[in-house]
Amino acid sequence: MDNCIFCKIATKDIPAQTIYEDDEMLCFKDIRPAAPVHLLLIPKVHFDSLAHATAEHQTLLGKMMLKVPQIAHEAGLTDGFKTLINTGKGGGQEVFHLHIHIMGTPA
Ligand code: 5GP
Ligand code: ZN
How many distinct structural domains can be found in the chain? Predict the structure, then answer.
């Protein structure tokens, strides 16, 4: 989507420190980390937020959720991690392309 910073990261028009990538999703380091490990997992397809997800995103969202513990483990978060999805302005969302925060401190 035009003028979406995370779409531009997904298409490599804006650089990011990529941790994981496949055909459907991309994980990269948050530019302003709020924890020793702070990653963002995004779908490559644009939708604004969890509140904008539809049935067509169901399988993709499931795949992303199942990928989170694998990414966290590979990032050294073997003792556990936090996940966060901010939704809407009132939910603290600043970038309106769905993303899952993965945060923690390596064990
Ligand atoms: P939100 O508040 O929307 O849930 O979180 C957006 C996150 O995106 C913030 O933690 C912010 O630091 C991160 N962020 C914003 N712009 C960029 C960027 O250009 N590159 C990266 N890697 N992270 C970004
Ligand atoms: Zn986007």
Answer: 1
Task: Tell me the CATH number at 81.
Answer: 3.30.428.10
Within a domain: residue 97? no
Check: CB of residue 49 under 8 Å from CB of residue 61. no
Tokens 């483990």 belong to 73
The reply to whether 46 belongs to the active site is no
Q: What are the pLDDT digits (tens) for 37-86?
A: 999 999 999 999 999 999 999 999 999 999 999 999 999 999 999 999 99
Question: From the CA of 30, how far away is ligand 1's center (Å)?
Answer: 6
The DSSP H or E segment spanning 41 is strand 37-43
Question: What distance in angstroms lies between residue 5's CA and the mean position of ligand 1's atoms?
Answer: 9
The residue annotated as part of the active site, out of 46, 73, 99, 101, is 99
The reply to whether 104 falls in a domain is no
pTM of the complete model = 0.98
